[in-house]
Design goal:
By secondary structure, the protein is mostly helical. It has a single domain, classed as Flagellar protein FliS (Four Helix Bundle (Hemerythrin (Met), subunit A), Up-down Bundle), CATH 1.20.120. The chain contains five helices and no strands. The longest helix has 47 residues. It is elongated, with a radius of gyration of 20 Å. The relative contact order is 0.12.
């Protein structure tokens, strides 16, 4: 009986550690979204002020973040959601190239709206994880 309790306690610790590692990944993704939105906002202002070199750097950073987000997708586990996000990131990357070439603030604003929606969804993930952990302990 003591062995069984010890085993269950160990399982619980591993489960919590795995959940914590996953939560850290969620926070990292949220930080990437925040950095992407910051870069897009900076580029908007740089276009207004005709700061072409700085705009190029901001949009280049935004593109690298999008590529990182796309690279972090797990198509096997994520299935259709991961495929849809990959398509969205590809679309945003193409729009960034257009925005850079044409100094198109509207394209940047469109990308900010799209990414903000995804970021808001990601913001709910820690709460969902916590609910799942509580349910699995109960």
């Amino acid at each position: 009986m003591a062995f069984r309790k010890k085993g269950l306690a160990s399982y619980g610790e591993v489960s919590i550690q795995a959940g914590t590692a996953y939560a850290d990944s969620v926070q990292l993704i949220q930080m990437l979204f925040d950095g992407l939105i910051d870069s897009l906002s900076a580029a908007e202002g740089q276009i207004e002020r005709n700061e072409i070199e700085a705009k190029g750097q901001s949009l280049s950073r935004a593109t690298r973040i999008l590529l990182g987000l796309k690279g972090s997708l797990d198509s096997e586990k994520g299935g259709e959601i991961a495929a849809n996000l990959a398509d969205l990131y590809d679309y945003c990357t193409r729009r960034l190239m257009h925005a850079n070439l044409k100094n198109d603030r509207e394209a940047i604003q469109e990308i900010k709206r799209l990414i903000s929606e995804v970021r808001e969804a990601w913001a709910q993930v820690p709460e969902i994880l916590q609910q799942q952990q509580v349910a699995s302990l109960g």
